[in-house]
Amino acid sequence: MAAPVRTLCCSVLRLSSRQFSTTCGVQGGEQWRKEHGVARSGTEYGPLTDLPDWSFADGRPAPPMKGQLRRKQEREVLARRIVMLNNEMDRGMEAWSEKREAAKKMEEHKKSLLLKPKGKLLMKKKSQS
Predict the structure, then answer these.
(1) I want to staple 64 with a disulfide (CB 3.0 to 4.6 A). Which of 4, 41, 68, 81 is the partner?
(2) Transmembrane region positions (predicted)?
(3) Could you give the dihedral angle defined by the CA atoms of residues 79, 84, 88 and 89, in that order, rounded to the nearest 10 degrees?
(4) What angle do CA 58, 61, 65 make, to 5 degrees?
């Protein structure tokens, strides 16, 4: 029973006018854009995507479009994340330096607790200095 359905399905696909592609689309010029420090595609950022398409005749700007608002919100979220991660990194560096200073103090304290030279060893040490 499953074989006829499969055959029917394959024959319908062969007869349909739609073409299915399983390859990934390659952007023309993407490598050149990367090498020259430009966006991967022309629709990521730049005047064509960031500036309004039109304005009123009296000079007032057009209201922002949905895509512009979305991109603005995405940039704000990214900026907030960058600031948060930067603050987290600063706190981590401060904690690391405090930990290192505490380890130095502990080492100095351990050295101060060691036995001190006495008698003849102390005299030798003084004479050498």
Answers:
(1) 68
(2) none
(3) 0
(4) 140
Residues whose CB is less than 8 angstroms from the CB of residue 117 and which lie 6 or more positions away in sequence, other chains included: 125
**Average pLDDT value for residue range 13-36:** 68
> Per the confidence metrics, is the pTM higher than 0.70?
no
Quick check: 27 and 41 in contact, CB under 8 A?
A: yes
Q: How far, in Å, CA of 31 to CA of 17, rounded?
A: 34
Q: Where are the domains of the chain?
A: 30-127
3-state SS, residue 32: helix
How far the first Cα of the chain sits from its last, in Å, is 102
